[in-house]
What does this fold into?
Amino acid sequence: MIPVTKPFLPPVEEFKKYIDGIWQRQWLTNMGPLASDLEMKLKQHLKLKHLLFVTNGTVALQMAIKALDLKGEIITTPFSFVATTSSIVWEGCTPVFVDIDEYSLNINPSKIEAAITENTSAILATHVYGNPCDVVAIEKIAKKHKLKVIYDAAHAFGVEINGKSVFEYGDISICSLHATKLYHSTEGGLVISQDAALLKKMAYIRNFGISGFDSFAELGLNGKNSEFHAAMGLVNLKYIKRIHQKRKELTWGYDEKLKYLKAVKPIWHKDATINYAYYPIVLESEELLLEIKTKLDGNEIFTRRYFYPSLASSLPYLESQSLAVTDDISQRVLCLPLYYDLTLEEVDLICRLMLRVQNN
Ligand SMILES: *Cc1c(COP(=O)(O)O)cnc(C)c1O
It folds into this structure.
């Protein structure tokens, strides 16, 4: 069986060493020493001034929306994981969907302005598959209309644009450190901001809004993460180079063997590095996609229609809406297996099966 993804697990002895330390200190959660150490090491690794380690990527999104005091409408992408949209609704705001660019699969900046109304407070865009949005165009629109920008960078761990972390863009960026992500702490998330005051506000929010023994500074929630999760994050960080290298080799393996498949890959941001978080392809037709998926399923090889269906047309709490490019792409996009333990032989098998379907 080949799953679409599989969490990276470090040698258990290395994790156990951290667990022994937790037993000695008897400090399990509430910004413990491992959580602080993880924040420090991630800042070094990502060359960032400020970040916070939080419960998960979804809570990170909610904290970002709350910290920026967003109200009314938030312009967002329909081509993302459901948490991008549900967080907006959960925070009492209204998502306004703007169609994606057919090449990058990110929100199309040239369509944003038409969606801005007097109730618009922000743009929440996803760097889909880790491929950065047109951050320059989005920033220009945001400045002109006095809008805040949040990036859902859940897929974009380690990506840089012109040598600068993708997390530096926007008023706030968030990342997910969920087990299925490229780099993980079992469950976990990050909020990142260049603005120290905003980060301080989010630090209060993360801890129920508490600012002192008997005082509260903000409306908070519980966004803390535990020492156990921090331990996983710390051990995995040591393997990040190896993880990156392995995924790169697998990606090149797919690229080489799928040259003649009737499919295209998203066009990557020209100034950005690639983190090999996913292997998405957009097939020529949904029919071909379904044939390939069925064939692979039959061989116990599992792919995922990520992201299908469009968020604009599938959520029971929102009125359904069609968006031409998103509807088209989401019907034809498929993510192939990609994870650290996958082998080039398995990639070869997957590709051969796929090409056999197409050439039949
Ligand atoms: C995974 C993911 C999230 C949610 O992160 P969790 O850590 O699972 O809460 C949000 N947005 C996108 C695009 C994601 O892929």
Observations:
- The radius of gyration is 21 Å.
